[in-house]
C-alpha cells in the first residue's frame, strides 16, 4: 500500500519475467525522481512510496542459501494479507491484516547547510555485469560410502569437501568446467553453465598405509538466477533487493582468492608473508583483505579493504624451535623438553618425506628417542618383522635421519600410531596465532602493521584488487562480471563542528569553539558545565599491604585539586581502606571487604558513599568481580585507576580524565551543546536511545548474549544516560524485550522531568542489512506494543549505526594536506557509494591520528520526524561531541557508544557469576543467591539486575 492508500500486489508473472535470457528490460519507469540531501550532485530516489515483496522473509529454501542467518524463534511468515510499506503513515487496516515495513526512502531536498567540499577516493570499485547471464545454483551432498558409525553420519571437514569437489571436477573436467563454477565449501555450487545432475563416486587417496576413501557426491539443481533482475533493482524498477543473486555473485567473486589464498572467515590471506611482517618467535603478520558486493547509487560496486592477522610461519619444526625458544640447542635436548612440548602441542604440521596434502596435529613428544623406537610390521610374505624407526626411513624413503638422539613428534590419530622425526615436519600454513599470546615487541609491531596510514592502505587496496590471486580472476569474468580497477572519485562535504558550552572557574557558562582541524578542546582554565559536589567518598588502596608499600597521599591531593579546578567540588575522603591485590582472587573476601567499606562509610557519613575510588597496582581479572558486586549487589559507584599511571609527575591529563568520568558517573554534566539540536528542539522533550547486543566469543557455544539499552534522562542537554542490561539467548541478535527496556527508561525520564518525552530517536548497533527487516517488523513492533499498553504514543525515528563494513575514505592528492592525512572530522558522504534509493550516509566524525579513519555508516529505517539528510547528519555529528569520557568528538554516535559499554558490562557480570561456585560465596548477602548459582543456566536475570542506587547513573563509562 502506498502513501495514497493504494494496495500493492505482486503477481507470479513478476518472477516469470526473468525466466528467459531473451527478456527485455522492463519499461515501466517510475515518474521523475527527487534529489536527496540538498547538496552536490542530485541523488535519485522514488517519488512515491513503493511496495516490497517481503525480501526479509526466510523459507526452508532460503535456509540453505549462503549468507542466511536462520532465526529459530522467528514467527511464520504470512501467506496472505501481507502489506509492506517503505514510507511510514498512519493508515487503518483490517484487524487480521499484517503490515510489514521496509527501510525508508531518501528524504526530499531541503536547503543545504553550509559546508566545504573535499575531493575523495572511496574503495568502491565499479562492477559491470552482463544482464543476460544466468547463474545456476546446485546443491551438492557429499557422504562417505562406508557404513555410518553409531548410526551418525561422519562430518567431513571443509578441507576434505574441497578436495572431493576438486577430484570430481578433475575426473570429469568436460562436464564440470572448474573455471565456470564457484563453490562455498559446503553444499552450494554456482555455475555459469549447466551442470549434469546425479550421483557420482569419488575416490580420495589417503595415507600410504591406508585404503582410499570412497565418497558419493549427489548434485541436484536448485534454482536459476537471472542477472537482469539485479539490473532492474539497481535501476529502481524492482521493489525488493534480489539478495540471492547478490549472494551468488559474491561467492563468485570469492572463488579465485579461495583457491589461491588462506581463508579465515570472510578474510583471505597470502600463503607467504612479507619480510617487514616478521614478528619473530615463529610468527609473522600476514596482510590480506576482505571484500563484498554492494548495490550503490552508481550501480553495483566491489568494496575491498585490507586486514592484518598473525599466523605461524611455514617453516621446519627445528627452525621454529630455534626461533621460538631462547637459546635453544638441539644437542642437550632434554634441557628444553618441557619448553618444546609447550611450544609444539596442538600445532599442525605437514610431513616432507612423502607427498600428501594431509595436516597432522602434534599431540606431544615420544618418551623414547628416535634411535630407540622400533615397531612391528607384516612383510609381503606374511611374516611379522621388527624394524628400528631410523632404518625404516632409510630403507623405505632413502632418508638418513640426522638427529637420532631426540624424541619424535607424536602425530597419532585415534588408534593409528604415527611417530615422525622432527626434521621431516614443517609447520602447516594458515595457523592463526592469538595476538594476546604475542610478546610485547611482536604485539606492538602487529598493531603498527594493522594501522597503516591512508596512503599506505590505499596502495595495499589497489595492489590487492589488481592481484592475480584477488577477487578479479578468470572465474568472475566467465560469469560476465568485470571490475573497474580504479577507486571511485567523488565529492564529499565537511560539516562545521558545533559550538560547545563550558564554564569558567567562577561558574559562569561560556561558549567554547572547537578546533576545526582536530575537533578537540582543552579544559585549561575552564570548568565543566555542572560539577557534582562530592562530599562522601572513600578509597580502597589495593596494594597498600604488599611488600613494597606505595604512598597514595600525593595522588589523592592532586586528584582533589584537579577536580576543584574543573568546577567539581570534592571534599576530603571519608577514609582510606588498605587491602592487597590478592583479595581479587577471593570473591568472598572481596565481597566482605566491599560490604565493610560501605557500612563503615555509612557510619561515618550517615549514608552510603557517593563513589568508591579503587587504586590498583596492576590490571587484574578480579576487576569483573568488583564491578558485579558493587553494581548489582551493594549499589556502589566505583572508579578504578592504576597507581603507576596516576602517581607520576606529568599526569594532569590522566587526572582530568578521572575527574570527567567521576563527575559523569555521579550525575554531573561535563560538556553541552551551546545551540539547540537541529530540527528537533523546537517543541517538547526528546529522548535519545542506544541499543546494542554483546555476543560471546566464537568458541563459546553456551553463554548468553547481553543486550543493553541506554537513554538520555535530561533535556535539552541530553548528555546524561540511564542503562538497562539484560541477558538473552546465545548469539540472538533480536532484542526480545526492547519494548520493556525502553519503557522503563521512559518512566525513569518521566520521574525525573515530570513529563514523558514526546519524541524518541533510537540508534541501533550491530545489525546487518539482512537484519533490517527484523528491526522494523519485530523490534519496532514490540516497542510500539509496549508503548500502547502504557497509553504512550511518541514519534519515533530508528537509525542503524554500522562500523563493520569495508568502506574507507581517502583524500585525493595533497589538496587539503599531505598525502598521509586522513579525511577531516565531519566528512559526510551521501552520494555515489550509498544505497541507490534508501536513506543512508557515511560520517567520519572523529580525528584520525593513528591509521586510517573508518567512517560510521548510518542507515535510517524509520522516521516519523521527517528529518532531512542535512539536519539528521548535523544532529548525529553534534551528538558525537557529548561523549563524557574525553574532550574530542568520537567516531560513533554517543548513545550507541554507551550501549556498547553497557552491554559489555553485562558480559563482565556473566563471567563473574559463572567463575564462582556457591561454595566460594560465603558472604551473608549471597546466602540466598548462591544456593541456585550452580543452576543459573545462563539467563537468570536476577544475577545481572542493576542495584536501584546505580541503575539510573552512568556507572558504565
Automatic annotation (TrEMBL):
Piwi domain boundaries: 611-911
GO annotation, cellular component aspect: ribonucleoprotein complex
Region described as Disordered: 1-78
Residue spans of biased composition, Basic residues class: 22-44
Keywords for this protein: Repressor, Ribonucleoprotein, RNA-binding, RNA-mediated gene silencing, Transcription, Transcription regulation, Translation regulation
Alphabetical list of InterPro entries matching this protein: ArgoL1, Argonaute_N, PAZ_dom, PAZ_dom_sf, Piwi, Piwi_ago-like, RNaseH-like_sf, RNaseH_sf
Compositional bias ranges of the Basic and acidic residues kind: 1-21, 49-63
Any single Pfam family the record assigns to this protein: Piwi
GO biological process, alphabetically ordered: defense response to virus; regulation of translation; regulatory ncRNA-mediated gene silencing
Top-level taxon of the source organism: Eukaryota
tRNA-binding keyword on record: no
GO MF annotations, alphabetized: RNA binding
UniProt entry tagged with the keyword Ribosomal protein: no
Domain PAZ: start-end pairs: 316-429
Similarity comment: Belongs to the argonaute family. Ago subfamily.
Protein name per the record: Protein argonaute 2
